[in-house]
Amino acid sequence: MNENDTGKPLLNMPEKVRLIIQRETEDGLRRFRAGNFDSRLESFRRSRPEGKRFFFGLPKWAWIPALGFTIAGILVIMDVLWFGRTRPVFPPAEIGTIDAALISLPGFRTLSIPGPTETAAEEDLFPAAIIVSRALAIAARNAAERRETVVPPADKLVPRYSLEQKIKILFGDKTIERAFSLFKDKFKEV
Amino acid sequence: MTTPDDGRFREIIGYKEDVFRVCLGFSRNVADAEDLCQDAFLKAFARAGDLRQPGSLRIWLLRIARTTCLDHSRRMRRNPIDLVDVVPDTAADPRTPEIVSEVNESFRRLKEAVQSLPRKQREVFVLREYGGLSYEDLARGLELRPGTVMSRLNRARRAITAAMKEE
């Protein structure tokens, strides 16, 4: 009794405590055996026949399907509640007020007041929204153009010419020749 | 005529003393332990279909007893321990009244010490010291690592010993 499963002596468990537990258990068992527990339990069991068990009385194997059905049910309910719902619609008077306020902002003033709608997508939009959508479209176009016009490195941009080609360019073009003649009095080299 | 239910009943009821000892460890007196033992068996009969491994019937029963007792102690937490309820029947004890009184006082102190343990330590202590479960069975029954079982048991024993020394 004073050893654990590995045969080593137990720590911090004085014999006194062990004896108390042993005595308590023996005394309790003596009274328990005298109480005719079996017949009492049998009569209880027969008076409480196993019926269908709902909710928390579910057997363990039924918990996972039950949980799955519960989640599916919640999703169906949410779908029914939200199905066919559209975005909230402002009254026309409020839309006009918001639109006027936006157009009066300094950033909007720099943009032109939109004329007739240019695309089919703009037909349902209000003036302020058209300005914003066009500004965004212009910004996107500019960004795309910047990406396309990337300047190549200098050594690849300037073609390499031979000396003969350079002389032909210099003296073949009359404009360059005339420019050099303007400098001939000032610089000996020219 | 014997039915399969009767056969299962007899198989389960064969562990009644093990279950009773665990209930005694968790409860305050023999009468409470008997009631808890009965509740535990009724639960076990109702859940007999959940038992997947017939070889682990004893551990399964003791686990049901543990749950039943912990649920009960949670409900009874606010009720103070009654000394008269705790002391065992010592009418037939051949020892002197002084010794009997001392033994009864020891019972009371032990009960208080066990009741004051944290739940996790208490369940390991009771299942080991009253139920007689091995470390391996405790680990399997409580779904813990053996090291965790040993450390909890060690802490519980230290606490019990300290509580018994203090008084």
Account of the protein in words:
The complex is a heterodimer of chains A (190) and B (167). Chain A has 190 residues and is an all-alpha fold. Among the domains of chain A are: 1-51, no CATH class; 107-148, no CATH class; 155-190, no CATH class. Chain A is 58% helix and 0% strand. Chain B has two domains: 1-79, Rna Polymerase Sigma Factor, Chain: A; 96-167, Arc Repressor Mutant, subunit A (Orthogonal Bundle), CATH 1.10.10. Helices cover 72% and strands 0% of the residues of chain B. Chain B has nine helices and no strands. In chain B, helix 8 (135-142) packs across helix 9 (146-166). Chain B is globular. The interface between A and B is large, with 35 and 38 residues.
Determine the number of helices of chain B (DSSP H or I, runs of at least 4 residues).
Answer: 9
* CATH architectural label of the largest domain in chain B: Orthogonal Bundle
Estimated radius of gyration of chain A: 48 Å
- CA radius of gyration of chain B is 17 Å
Which structural category fits the helices and strands of chain B?
Answer: mainly alpha
How is the biggest beta sheet of chain A arranged? none
Please provide the ordered H/E string of secondary-structure elements of chain A.
HHHHHHHHH
Give the integer mean of the pLDDT values of chain A: 69
Strand content of chain A: under 5%
CATH topology of the largest domain in chain B: Rna Polymerase Sigma Factor, Chain: A
The end-to-end span of chain A amounts to: 118 Å
Average per-residue pLDDT of chain B, rounded, comes to: 82
Largest interface: A-B, 35 and 38 residues
Per CATH, the class of the largest domain in chain B reads Mainly Alpha
CATH superfamily of the largest domain in chain B: RNA polymerase sigma factor, region 2, helix turn helix motif
Multimerization state: heterodimer
Contiguous low-pLDDT stretches of chain B (5 residues minimum) are none
